[in-house]
Structures are given as C-alpha cells and as structure tokens.
Design brief:
Elements lengths: L9 E2 L5 E2 L2 E5 L14 H12 L6 E6 L23 E4 L8 H9 L4 E7 L4 H11 L3 E10 L3 H14 L2 E3 L4
Parallel strand pairs: 3-4, 3-6, 4-5, 6-7, 7-8
Antiparallel strand pairs: 1-2
Length: 172
C-alpha cells in the first residue's frame, strides 16, 4: 500500500492547511433533498467545509447525465452555501470529463484538490480516481461526503488509500 503525503500551502480561516481548490460534487436537488438519500446533516457538513475555503477556491460541479436535456435547469440543494460562480457541469461520473474544468485547473497551476459531495461510491469516487490519474494531490473530507451504501464504501476507501488519496475525518 502506498501513501502520499499531501503538501498543502494554503491556510483556511482557522489556520489549517487546505488544497488549492475545493470541488463540491453533485450537491443538487436531484440527490440532496427531503425524501432523497442525503439530508440536512450532509448540507451542514458541506457548508462548514465550503466556509473554510476562500470563495475563489470553491468550485461547484453539477451532474447532468448524458441522456438529460440540456435546457432543463439544474438546481443546487436547498440550503447549500453558494460562495462562488465557478460552476462546471458534467455528463458522466467523473468531473474530469469536462474539458473546461480541466483547462481551468491546469491554467491556474492547480496542484492539490479536495473533494466533497455525493456519492462516495459514485461521482465523488470517479472524480477522485480521475484526479489521481491527472497527477493532482488529492484529499477527501469524509465528514462532507454522502454515501448511500456504507458496505460498498469500504472498497472505495481501500481504492483511495491504495491510490495515495489523503482521507480525512469520518462520514457524517
């Protein structure tokens, strides 16, 4: 098993080191709402993490599956803290399928990325593993990651650890 120490140079409002960018994955009303798999506790944890980053370092990723119409407006989850207008859409599980996001990150000299959002076994997992392949230093704030299938998530955690992802905290 290989572990990579993530060297972070930026500090949050509490003096803790943070990644170059925080990517907030799929925190939208399609998945996070009353009657859905994820609820208010996750929104609170995600908002806490967002608030720890400078607003210009927060990027939101919205999911629009390849079969969904492009003219249907996607909505963020009710109560989600929106601090940035940096919003990228993806049509597949990994946010790195969006070339505009890749260009933005590369153009800004990004070295490290932290991921939060939903689902830890789906789009967060795919994006984290793709970021590793793109040679980013990757961290995941577990307290702000929604996971519908806890048992399956143990395999995801193993993959992340094996790939050198820095995993912090516990699931909320």
């Amino acid at each position: 098993m290989v572990f990579v120490q993530v060297a972070l140079d930026r500090l949050d409002s509490r003096g803790s080191k943070v990644a170059d960018y925080l990517l907030v994955i799929d925190m939208q009303s399609d998945y996070v709402a009353v009657g859905k798999a994820y609820h208010e506790e996750l929104i609170a944890a995600v908002n806490d993490k967002i608030a720890s980053y400078p607003s210009d370092r927060v990027i939101y990723i919205l999911n629009r599956f390849f079969w969904e119409r492009k003219d249907r407006k996607k909505k963020f989850a009710t109560g989600l803290l929106l601090v940035s207008s940096r919003i990228f859409e993806k049509r597949w599980a990994s946010c790195f399928t969006n070339s505009d996001l890749k260009d933005f990150l590369e153009g800004n000299g990004t070295k490290s990325i932290e991921f939060i959002g939903v689902d830890g076994n789906g789009c967060v997992k795919a994006s984290v593993l793709a970021a590793i392949k793109e040679n980013y230093q990757v961290s995941v704030g577990l307290s702000a990651v929604g996971v519908a299938n806890q048992r399956k998530f143990q395999k995801t955690l193993h993959k992340w650890h094996s790939a050198g992802v820095s995993v912090e905290g516990e699931l909320s």
